[in-house]
């Protein structure tokens, strides 16, 4: 541990959990360099934030130029030019033409809270439905809505009232074997939602249902098409708004500009955006139709740093890079390579019995390992399953100078490389992953 890291371990609040005590000093593309000169391949992208890699030159220059023009142009005083330019860039990219009105804030959690404020204001109703395994933030409002791990809200109650939870069509959460068909999972999950509306929160009291199209902290699980279509119908039938949380899935991460585009018949009433929008600069927002947004009184939304001019300038550059560098084409190619490796490992006679599932979309990729204590994971035909596979694989990757992250309360590890990662870099990353998993299996 460096002297600076030792200082940090004594002075940074203990509530800020860390996977390592590395001091991340410099970033360039798919790599981070520490204060001791150690270079690390970054398959976390700052938890899905630096989608164009660290310090993309065009994004960096846009922010530098804006710093020399105006840094703080407070949104409750007037417009700032980059903010309006960003809206012009984003409007044509929206997954539905009704999403035409924007409000920009700073963080994903704030944007989620903005979506709840809008839903309650527009409907005159209070209650919110979330799905089991969801993650929406760590503010007081969003802690109540986060259902991926108890650590995010433990000891902070009472939390925001009026939040109800419905199961997600994931075999763990429905409590059935992993071999259960997707159609059956969808059927059971939608049935439980119907019961929730009959037994716990009546439609007349329910403002919105919020969901991530790919469950993030819950394990990188894409929503089945039939499930999201079912949610849209239930919301339409009951006067409930459907909020799509694209904080982690948006801006190319799943191979589409927004993950909801994988479900073309599902229209969001409100969409939440953040993370990859500005490649590391703090920026988030909500998008909805003007008739809903205009129900809020002037002054009811805002914030000191909301829609910061430097962040918005960076975000404008991000959207331009996506088009100029054909980022989505690269996501398709590199995602195929990463999924190819993981499916190959799952089919391997030595390794495959440790892997329960490979899943995700684009370059939002998860792998769940079997657990020797979990009755719902697939049978390993009597083979011994190593314990704590996810954290052990993560540590093996770290030993080979690659940063990765675990996720969920199950044995899951997620891979979130930059969307512009090269074929050569992806091969290097795949080689590290292969060795890490193989080493853990052989050590038992």
TrEMBL record:
Q: State the needed cofactors, names only.
A: pyridoxal 5'-phosphate
InterPro entries given in the database record: Aminotrans_3, Aminotrans_3_PPA_site, Class-III_PLP-dep_AT, PyrdxlP-dep_Trfase, PyrdxlP-dep_Trfase_major, PyrdxlP-dep_Trfase_small
Q: Does the keyword Transmembrane apply?
A: no
Q: Which GO terms describe its molecular function?
A: identical protein binding; pyridoxal phosphate binding; transaminase activity
- Keyword annotations: Aminotransferase, Pyridoxal phosphate, Transferase
Q: Which family does it belong to?
A: Belongs to the class-III pyridoxal-phosphate-dependent aminotransferase family.
Q: Protein name, please?
A: Pyridoxal phosphate-dependent transferase
């Amino acid at each position: 541990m460096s002297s600076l890291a030792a200082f940090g371990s004594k002075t940074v609040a203990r509530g800020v959990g860390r996977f390592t005590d590395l001091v991340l000093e410099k970033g360039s593309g798919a790599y981070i360099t520490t204060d001791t000169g150690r270079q690390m391949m970054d398959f976390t992208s700052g938890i899905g934030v630096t989608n164009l890699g660290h310090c993309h030159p065009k994004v960096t220059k846009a922010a530098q130029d804006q710093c020399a023009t105006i840094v703080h142009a407070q949104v409750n005083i007037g417009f700032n030019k980059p903010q309006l330019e960003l809206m012009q860039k984003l409007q044509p990219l929206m997954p539905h033409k009704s999403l035409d009105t924007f409000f920009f804030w700073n963080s994903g959690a704030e944007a989620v809270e903005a979506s709840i404020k809008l839903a309650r204001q527009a409907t005159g109703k209070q209650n919110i439905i979330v799905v089991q395994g969801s993650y929406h933030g760590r503010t007081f409002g969003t802690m109540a809505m986060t259902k991926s791990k108890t650590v995010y809200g433990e000891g902070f109650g009472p939390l925001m009232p009026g939040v109800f939870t419905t199961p997600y069509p994931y075999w763990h959460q429905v409590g059935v074997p992993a071999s259960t068909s997707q159609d059956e999972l969808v059927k059971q999950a939608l049935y439980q939602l119907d019961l929730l509306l009959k037994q716990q929160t009546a439609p007349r009291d329910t403002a919105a249902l919020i969901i991530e199209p790919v469950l993030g902290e819950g394990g990188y699980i894409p929503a089945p098409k039939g499930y999201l279509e079912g949610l849209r119908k239930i919301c339409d039938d009951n006067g409930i708004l459907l909020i799509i949380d694209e904080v982690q899935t948006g801006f190319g991460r799943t191979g589409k500009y927004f993950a909801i585009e994988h479900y073309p018949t599902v229209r969001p009433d409100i969409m939440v955006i953040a993370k990859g929008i500005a490649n590391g600069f703090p920026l988030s927002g909500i998008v909805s139709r003007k008739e809903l947004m205009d129900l809020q009184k002037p002054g009811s939304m805002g914030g000191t740093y909301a829609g910061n001019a430097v962040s918005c300038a960076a975000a404008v550059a991000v959207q331009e890079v996506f088009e100029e560098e054909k980022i989505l084409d690269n996501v398709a190619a590199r995602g195929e390579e990463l999924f190819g490796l993981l499916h190959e490992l799952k089919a391997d006679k030595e390794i495959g019995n440790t892997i329960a599932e490979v899943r995700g979309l684009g370059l939002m990729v998860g792998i769940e390992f079997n657990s020797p204590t979990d009755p719902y994971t697939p049978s390993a035909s009597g083979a011994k399953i190593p314990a704590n596979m996810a954290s052990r694989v993560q540590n093996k990757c770290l030993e080979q100078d690659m940063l990765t992250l675990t996720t969920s309360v199950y044995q899951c590890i997620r891979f979130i490389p930059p969307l512009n990662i090269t074929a050569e870099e992806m091969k290097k990353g795949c080689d590290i992953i292969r060795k890490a998993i193989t080493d853990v299996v052989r050590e038992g």
